[in-house]
Amino acid sequence: MSSRLATLAWEIWCRGSRSARLAFGCVAGCALINLIAQNRFSASDFGPGLFNSLFGLLMACSLFLMMGVFNYTEFSSTREWNGFPYRLFTLPLRTWQLVALPMFLGVVSVELLYLAWIKLVWTHDSIVRPEWFAVVLGAYMIFYQAALWSLAGFRIVRLLVLSLGGVSSIAVACLPMFDEVVPSPWFSETRLIAILLFLAFIAFIVAWRTVARQRCGGGLRRHWIKILLERITDALPRRAKDFSSPAAAQFWFEWRRAGLLLPACTSLVLAVIFGPFSWFCRNDPQATVDLLLRILLMPLVLAFCVGKAFVKPELWSTDFALPPFLAVRPLSAGEFVISKLKVATLSVAATWLLIVVFIALWLPLWADDTNLNGLMVKFRMLYPQSWQTIIILYFAGFVVLTWRCLVSGLWIGLCGNRSYYVAASLLQVITVALLLLAAGILSDTIDVEIRDNPVRLISIALSVTGWLLTIAVIVKLWFAVFSWSKITPRCAWQYIFIWLFATLGFVVLGILSRPWADTHRLEHLYVLAAFLIFPFARLGLAPLSLAKNRHQ
Amino acid sequence: MKKFLITLATLVSGLAIFLGLDPGHYAFKYIDVGGHQVRMYIAGHGGPAVVFEAGGSPADGGPLEAWERVQPAVSRFTTTVAYDRAGIGLSAPGPKPRDARQVARELHAALQNARVAPPYILVGHSFGGPLIRVFAGIYPKEVGGMVLIDPTQEEFIYWNQARETNRVERQDEEWKDMKASLDEAHESQVPKGIPIVLITAMGPAVIPSFVTEQQKEDMKFYRSFWLKFHNEWLEKVPDGQHIITENSGHMVPFYEPELIVRVSRQMIEKKSANPQ
Questions:
Q1: Contact between chains at B5 and A480 (C-beta distance less than 8 A)
Q2: CA–CA separation, B48 vs B271, rounded Å?
């Protein structure tokens, strides 16, 4: 019996070993940073915050990876769903064992991972109530697997249940903290643990029963929902007009496949996180300022994440090769790239429209804008003549940066080589991690220098920044000469003029927004940075990458 | 197109190197004032030299860039000197206490070491007003005139402190230096026979919409006493001229630089016509 269970465990490990290694790799990397820079944390005020953000992000990633490992489902061609692997039903094991083993391994793995984070990384007691979070994580793993197997026939409902389950788990995890504000027996950890364990047991029973039914050839599936959806889709007005050109058809296709994702994610985050949060903090003037900053940064973060998928030839596919369906289209590689750029533009415009609408409703209706008004007064006093222009240009800057996050990786995403793509993504993460590590290691020396020679340190920092920016601008421009000289002149001219116009706008912003007594001559740095914001050099390689991928 | 790209890359690379080199940085001089250096920007030719003293406390005031709208215009007709007091902007910190006499001694040493010959027309904004008065008291023979731009008047500060009965006296070093500097300015003698212009800012011309009615009333109240103390001080000065401007608020060098340029020019012309 044990060998059969071991076979099943080995099967699960083989499927998810790469993700599991990556998850534990995150812990190991962070533990190393913690070990090297641990004693330097207290020396600098900004160090712990910086590292905690990185650790928090990587911890969330590793937990997601672990959830991915125990997403133990397979596509069943007979049932046309992704559910409990049908081929395992032939194993000489009882159904409860088939269900219990992945659940048990899932819980143990997630708890081990969490324990590793607590003991090796969060060694400064940064996480309050670590035991309670361990219970919530374990329970969520059981709910997660129960939902995956029990709702195999309900794709969208399953997706909703999993999302709601995730959000609810976060909310439940926060419940004991309310006990300090509103004392209630329902917020006590003991009672909540009992409830969670009971619910986890129920989830196990439900999963067992449904998998047993599937093993006997049964299983629920609501065909009528699919039929109803198809009827609704048929009844909806469809595009009857022909496309004016193959490029227009490609734009339409790309928008539906990839363009809607960023506005959809933005709407979801606004509705699920920022909307309720802004309401709860409606009487806190400082929260308004903090929240506004986060709302403005949110599209950048989302675009960075969505951009990783957007730059691939097919958004939802894990295959980097250009699908034959697209490869045979009567379009040049340049036109493909242009349609992607146009879709990205529309996507970013829709995203920022949502943000503007949300802010326009939130600030006048339910926000306490006392502190925000105070900041505005100071801002208007600093730039009395140009404050409106600066605000407009800053807004345009945020929009362009969002667009940049979405499209800047096109040249690598379209080349069809997974290794390049993974290496480029890892390089970004490693660069940030190394910079943080260096900051942690050198924090003592930096603090001593700041205390003893502030002028010298500022002078060196500004000089180094200035020269790095200068080199970056020169490299960018000459790389652009190389990449754009291989593109059709008509497309190249259009883009070069767009780049010139946008860069001019950023240069104006750099000059206008410098401090009024610019002792450190920051204006120079702002102007240099302005040349780097709008994507130019690497984007010129995207059509070449796609052409190479198309003919592989 | 390739030619255009190469031209563009060459031009922008040239601009980037120009900005990276920061040519403006080399325009400054670092002058030794007895163990530490102060940053100085000297421009223009001829005399008498106009010396600018920025506002703010002696230890934490504005940098020489505060005069960026005034100095270039004045430099067209005479030598001008703007500098960062020790510990401000890009100047190294100096010895303590940072009172007006210490600041005056350092400025004097800096002018001598930079070979800027007297007489000097001293232009001081806000707290720079009391600072240049102390300088004029210590080195009366080297001062050819003074322009006080909306200066901090010690009597106003004393009056304001007396009004606040529940006030808790600040104990920090910066406040002690400021108080000492105001007392030193009060004791300083104004050199006889030199022209003095005092500009009182009663603006701004357009009050921004975000200023409430209460704030406007408060401003009016304080401004009336600000003007009163300026008037009272100027009555004691024989060659004093009072200019009241309603076109700008306290930051006159920023909002109304042309007024300072005009006054400086008149003072230089007067000094040239009557060297004694």
A1: yes
A2: 8
* Interface membership of A113 toward B (CB under 8 Å): no
Q: Where are the domains of chain A?
A: 2-232, 260-550
CA distance B160 to B165: 10
* Residue B17 located in a structural domain: no
CATH number of the domain that B216 lies in?
3.40.50.1820
Q: Could you give the percent of chain B with pLDDT greater than 70?
A: 96
**B8 part of contact set with chain A, CB < 8 Å:** yes
Of A533, A534, A535, A511, which Cα lies nearest the Cα of A523? A511
Contacts of A384 in chain B (CB under 8 A): 208
User: How many domains does chain B fold into?
Assistant: 1
**Of B65, B90, B210, which has the smallest distance from its Cβ to A455's Cβ?**
B90
Examine residue B6 and state whether it is found in any structural domain, yes or no: no
pLDDT value at position A514?
83
Can you tell me the distance from the alpha carbon of A543 to that of B88, in angstroms, rounded to the nearest whole number?
Answer: 53
The ipTM is 0.72
Q: Dump pLDDT digits (tens) for A390-409.
A: 999 999 999 999 999 999 88
Boundaries of domain holding B144: 24-273
Q: Does residue A234 surpass a pLDDT of 60?
A: yes
Mean pLDDT score across all residues of chain A: 85
SS3 A401: helix
Burial A416-425 (b: 16+ CB within 10 A, else e): bbeeebeebe
Given an 8 Å threshold on Cβ–Cβ distance, is B19 in contact with A470?
A: yes
CA nearest A504 in B: which residue? B12
How close B85 comes to chain A (CA, Å)? 13
With an 8 Å Cβ cutoff, is B136 touching chain A?
Answer: no
Residue A531 C-alpha, separation from nearest chain B C-alpha, in angstroms? 9
> How far are the Cα atoms of B53, B203, B250, B266 from residue B244, in angstroms, in the given order?
20, 9, 12, 16
Mean pLDDT over A30-45 rounds to 68
Residue range B79-97, pLDDT digits in tens:
999 999 998 888 888 888 8
B206 touches chain A (CB under 8 A): no
In a domain, B19, yes or no: no
User: Per residue in A320-335, pLDDT tens?
Assistant: 888 888 888 888 888 8
User: What's the predicted TM-score (pTM) here?
Assistant: 0.72
- Is the model's pLDDT at B2 over the cut of 60? yes
